[in-house]
Amino acid sequence: MEHINNRFSIFLLIVLIAFFLGGAPISMAKETAEEYIDDSVITAMVKKAIYDEPTLKTSEIKVKTSKGLVKLSGFVNSQAEIDKAGEIALFVNGVQSVKNDLRIK
C-alpha cells in the first residue's frame, strides 16, 4: 500500500511540475519580455534613423514603441520635419504603424 502511495505522490508531483512549467502565465510572460525587447530595438533603430537624417539632428524628438506602434512626440522646426520624421520611422524594420504627435516650436 505504501508503494502505491509513493507512486501516486510522484505522479502528482510530476503533473504539478508540468502544469507550472508549461502553463500559460509563464509563456505569456515570455512573450511580453520578447515584445519588450523587440520594442526597445525598434525604438533604438527609429532614434538612430532620425538622428542620421541631417535635417532632424537638432530636433527634440522623443520615440516610444509598444507592440510595433511607434509614437513620435516633441518639437521640430517645421511641418516638413514632422512629415520627414514620420516617414523615416515608418520605414524602420519592425514598425507596424506610426502615431506622429510632433509639434512645431
Please, could you describe this protein's structure?
This protein has 105 residues and is α+β, with helices and mostly antiparallel strands. The protein has a domain at 32-104: Histidine-containing Protein, Chain: A. Helices cover 59% and strands 22% of the residues. The protein has helices at residues 2-22, 24-52, 79-90, and strands spanning 60-66, 69-76, 97-104. A three-stranded mixed beta sheet has the order 1-2-3. Strand 2, helix 3 and strand 3 (97-104) form a beta-alpha-beta unit. The longest helix is centred in the middle third of the chain and has 29 residues, at 24-52. The termini are far apart. 18% of the residues are buried.
SSE blueprint:
Layout: H1 2-22, H2 24-52, E1 60-66, E2 69-76, H3 79-90, E3 97-104
Parallel strand pairs: 2-3
Antiparallel strand pairs: 1-2
